[in-house]
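Page 47, continued from p. 46.
Same chain as before, 331 aa.
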Amino acid sequence: MALLDENRDILSWSSQFEGYLPLSLRRIKEEESWVIDSPAGKIFNIFSSFSPEEGGTYYLYLGYSLKNLEEMIAYSRRNFVLVFGSIFVIGLVFFFGFYKLQRYYLQKEKEADEERNEKERYREISAFTSGVAHEIKNPLNSLYLLCELLQRKVPEELKEEVSLGKEEMQKISRIIDQFSTSLKPIKLNKETFLLSELMASVHESLKKEWSQRGVAVRYSESSTIVLDADKGLMSQALSNLLKNAIEASNGGEVLTKARQERKRIFIVVEDRGKGIDDEDLARIFEPFFSRKEKGMGIGLYLTKKIIEAHQGKIEVQTKTGEGTTVLIQLP
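Result:
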């Protein structure tokens, strides 16, 4: 700060820079303010005149160092970059979350459409199958009754052939029933029961089969497990899995293990068979797909329908030459 007389000679001055007054009279023209570069940095200058009551003209000079202002501007720039970067990151996260959410809903919508289309397709197939089954079974029943009459009247040497014809007709009838059953929607009749009791019943029904094949079948569970499910349908599903495992093992061992983790129940069926080819693995749950000579491809398809009807999941893992593992998850 400086006070000048009418000739612009300095009368008095004060500066925070010792021995230095950042004032250039050559810059003073008609300007009231300007900025100069000085050894102390940029200085903002204000120069104005005033006249006291006693007369005369004086000049007042004020110089303000912009050093702190420059630091503040640099600090503001850094903050701007930080804030802008934070906003950008938050926006990116929000956009990514919104994108994932949109994809999730689109996927769910697609799955719902596929499920509706599949239900409609199976409804049409079911109606067609029911009609065909009705048209076939009526004459089939008549043929069966005719064979029974023939069996009573034909010579002894022909009775075996007539009996074989009756068995073939019964086989056709069972196939038609299985086709019809596989296409009907599953209705659950839930009850509460012990899984160990259900497995004991399933083992008893398959005991003769595994004994004939020389297969060892074992069951274990980590703790007492209680199921709230349709007992008959769960028995059918587990019987299908164990039967497949027994047929695949050929003298080996079949292990069934169960455990409960929080609100989920896991049932694992393992065999020591030859495994499943990758090409077949992708199709094992398709209806009417089977590599067995006498298989119809209904068992695993129905098993999957039963598990999913209980809001569960079923997965298959296999290694060629080592065996197959089926994992069931149930609520």
